[in-house]
Amino acid sequence: MLEFMDLKGITADATNYQNVYCNYHFHYQFELLLVWDGEVNVKISGKEYTLHRGDVAFSLPFEPHSYFTEESSRSICYVFAPEIVSSFYKIINQKKNHKNAFSLDPDLFRYMEKTCVSNQRSIHKTRPSVSETEQMGTIYLLLSQIDRHCPLVEENGDTENTELGDVALKYLSQHFLEPISLESVAGALGYNKSYLSRIVKEQTGKGFANHLISLRIFHAARLIEIAAESGSEVSFSEIAFECGFNNIRSFNRGFKMITDETPSKYWANHRKHTKLQRSSN
After folding, report:
1. Residue-wise pLDDT tens digits, 90-110
2. d(CA 281, CA 270)
3. Domain of 254?
4. Are the C-beta atoms of residues 40 and 100 closer than 8 Å to each other?
5. Model confidence pLDDT, tens digit, residues 181-223
6. How far apart are CA 78 and CA 14, in angstroms?
7. What's the pTM value of the predicted model, to 2 decimals?
8. What DSSP element (H or E) covers 253?
């Protein structure tokens, strides 16, 4: 399944994980995952990779990605806003990548392992004990490795359209829970509605209405996951209306279309997975 994660408040964050796991999602930030030990299965924009010690996977802004540990793993994940790496963002903004995973240069991996890994070897969601300056320096070192190991090629398309598309997608990611429409968003952004529809299609591969429904379903799925993780019951009707749907029938239909599961089945499966994950830690 695919979900939208609202991370717009994060400037830069580094998190150590034991047995990393997350559903297929996307957000406005860059994300880098480096594996210290074990094995992590990664899916990015439909491409699948298996990471081992010293391997890195990266996802660009709005690029869907997921992580799954079948047995055991230790890793560190960096999430950061494109604004703080603006020079790199300008380079890749008009490009697409051939691949999203590579093996880190051995010397750099040894340096990072020495400076970034906590003395405790089983850490979940704990910040590494490094300064902000070291953290940003590490991010730039990792970005330099992307340049070396994953050459980017020019994206076909109009530069102005891509920039306007970024503006439109960011606006939708911030307002999708509101009662918006193609006409209202076009008016707010000062676009012709036909032009807006076209650039959203170019950026997402989906029409405006389908992209809006997807954002709402991704958010609804996250609310269901939170309820499942906490062990609480959930009102699917309340979630449906909170996520901008006028009735439960259209919500159920959209949820099934995107996740291939009903909301109740999704809750049950996520609850089961949460219990299994906790029992293994």
Report:
1. 777 666 667 899 999 999 999
2. 17
3. 212-280
4. no
5. 999 999 999 999 999 998 888 777 778 998 899 889 878 887 8
6. 4
7. 0.58
8. helix 248-259
Looking at this protein, which amino acid is placed at residue 56?
A: V
User: 78 and 139 in contact (C-beta within 8 Å)?
Assistant: yes
Q: Identify the weakest region by mean pLDDT among 16-25, 111-120, 132-141, 179-188.
A: 111-120
Q: Give the pLDDT confidence score for residue 173 in this predicted structure.
A: 78
Number of structural domains (the chain) is 3
Instruction: Give the DSSP letter string of 13-30.
Output: EEEEEES--EEEEE-SSE
β-partners of residue 186 are none
Q: Are residues 8 and 63 in the same domain?
A: yes
Half-sphere exposure of 236 (CA within 13 A, CB side): 18
C-alpha span between 85 and 166 (Å, rounded):
16
Domain identity same for 235 and 106? no
Tell me the C-alpha distance between 191 and 185, whole Å. Answer: 8
Under DSSP, the state recorded for 174 is H
Do 112 and 62 sit in the same domain of this protein? Answer: yes
Site of tokens 């009903």: 262
Same domain, 134 and 163: no
Q: Which residue, 167, 186, 205, sits at the end of a domain?
A: 205
